[in-house]
Amino acid sequence: MLERAIGHTLGVVRAVTPRQHPNPTPCAAWNLRMLLEHLNDSLEAFQEIVDTQHMGMRPCDVLDDPPVADPAVRFRDRATHLLGSWLSPSHREHMTDIAGLQLQTEIVAHTAAIEIAVHGWDVSQSCGDRRPIPAGLATDMLDIAPMLITEYARQPLFAPAQVAHSTNPSDRLIAFLGRNPDP
């Protein structure tokens, strides 16, 4: 799932230009540049997990890296590196420590896949491309998302689930994650 999510989002981000950075996104408080910086921070955290099987807690708004001229280029570099690291079989059977909580690395990878694919959808919307998450990937994510994003865990990370007026798996996933699939 992580490989497919990275592949999908790399395809979306490949088309982003610096002129689009001020564009609004489905994440109301963020423009496209801010969304890409958040996505880069997420990739950094997931890379830490793959490399060390550990992630400490840190404030969400603290980026370890200085701003760059084009966060889309940084995303492509980080996503490619994360994909290469993830494809190495040595870490897949490990447990991951996240702030003292032990989780199977595969569960963390599913969480990363959802984060990456859904923000890929956000980027696509911001750029006017409106590319859906591939149906097979969205279907697989719909199977696991309710176990990872419960009503208890939803706030403040996700808005309340929306109603999808479509049977399209991408629209249903996007709606479950609190976004409007029909902007």
Instruction: Provide the gyration radius in Å.
Output: 16 Å
Sequence of strands across the biggest β-sheet: 1-2-3
E-strand count: 3
- Largest pleated sheet: 3 strands, mixed
How helix-rich are the residues, as a percent range? 40-55%
Uncertain regions spanning at least 5 consecutive residues? none
For this entry, what is the oligomeric state of its chains? single chain
Proportion of β residues? Answer: 5-15%
The overall average pLDDT, rounded, is 88
Note the overall shape. Answer: globular
- The structural class is mainly alpha
**Termini distance?**
26 Å
Can you describe what's shown?
- The protein is mostly helical.
- The chain is 54% helix and 5% strand.
- The mean pLDDT is 88.
- It has helices spanning 2-13, 32-52, 71-86, 105-127, 135-148, 151-154, 169-176, and strands at residues 54-55, 95-98, 101-104.
- Helix 2 packs antiparallel against helix 4 and helix 4 (105-127) packs across helix 5.
- A three-stranded mixed sheet has the order 1-2-3.
- Helix 3 links the parallel strand 1 and strand 2 (95-98).
